[in-house]
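Q: Okay, next protein. This is HD-GYP domain-containing protein from Alishewanella agri BL06. I've checked the sequence twice, so it should be correct. Can you predict the 3D structure?
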Amino acid sequence: MSVSFGKAAYAKVIQRLIERIYHQSPLQDSIYEQAIKWFDEKDLRDQKATELEQQLFLFENRQQQCKKGDQAAVARNLKQAEEQHKTFSEEIEEARFQRYSELLSLCRDILSLCQGENFVDTNNASAKMLGTIQLICPTRRRHIARENQKARHLYKAVLSIRLLDRLLMDGLIDHPFILERYEAGKSVPYSDETEYHPYRDDIQIPVLMAAILQDIGRCHPICQGILKGADGSFDEFRELEAEERNTFLQTSYTETLNYVQDALTVGRYTGRSKEERDRFVQGEIEKRELIQLLLKQAVRPQDVLGSILRIPQIYTGMVLSTRSSYNYEDLPKAALALEKSAELGKLSKNSVAAFLRIVGMFPQGYGITYIPKDSDGNDMERYEYAIVTGLYPPDFRTPICRMVTYSLTYQASARGCIVSAENNLYFAQGRKKLEVVSEERLLDILRKLVYNFEERMASPLLPRCWHPDDYFLNQKNQNLWNKAVVSQN
């Protein structure tokens, strides 16, 4: 399970993980491309299976009824029919196992990159993955919807296992299988080298699988027809009419469950012990049942178990939005929307509180504009740039960040800061502090900080945030998660 990557290559590794889930290539080897192919070929497969079964049934009947002189010929035909039926069944089963194995390998690689040996390391690794996903996705110009659509499955999956951890730590989950494996895992070292870990292998990986597969039903031809039209000419990211949306959601949900049941198998036991094999098979059945339960419960988000997938799904849908109304400045509203839904009873209040404790108000990788303090702790008459880089902020509105500029100059990310709401230009109280600064001085600050002329022309004099994606494209600016001294601003 061990995966070793160089720091400089980290963003490329995350891009590859995204592509393994959702991509369009001649190889058609991503999880979602495989699903489109599986759904498209289902009728032909079912037809062939029926024909082979009928052929087998026909020769079995003939063998019982034929004359003595015809028995040899019928027996040959029956044997051939049995071999064809067996070969076809084995091909189907092997394809199911291959799809499962690729999904399992993907989930193990995800865990290798977002799980540490302790709570702090795990959160740092998860923040790095979530922040990198946000930073490699475009926030302006074209292709926002398309790139966000590809990236959201991985983003949601990471949030789902972090929420699962939090709900377990808070004692909010009472599912016997999850609790038993969680407790059993406490006495086993958690590392890539540990061959079997009860919590990792039996709970976290099925949760990752469920999160990745949650929208797989959208690959069904009915859903694809609604999204893209019969000739593929529709904008798949447009707002659907109410009736279209209902059909889409119902079909996607049903076909997701069908895909898990029919397109995937379970792990295979390779040892020789009957007792071990029985235990292994039982474990595989329980993991499969957990995946199906999580997918079914996700449509009941008031339930804590349903929250594990549903809350990250809602949050990701806003942070990595595919809507035409996408506005980067509004990303912090995703957390506020979850709060509101919990207040209205649409989501579990305890689960939302647990989730927001992890993510805070500002998403990982978000560009923060803030007022720095001088050595005496006084506010300075300028603003600087930072990027959100830490989970579990000390307060909902105070993100853990990495400073990107210092004295209006871009620098290697050696300093961290916790930005107070009072000094964060996202909030009116922060912007109000700089209203005394002359327009000429604000224009000078803007000129020094913006990355390109296009951004300068579009930026207000007191920007609520900044777009760090261009900055992050430079490889030397990607080491935002190394250890740094953290100050309070």
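A: Here is a summary of the prediction. DSSP finds 18 helices and seven strands in the chain. Residues 71-114 form the longest helix (44 residues).
Q: Noted. On to the next one.
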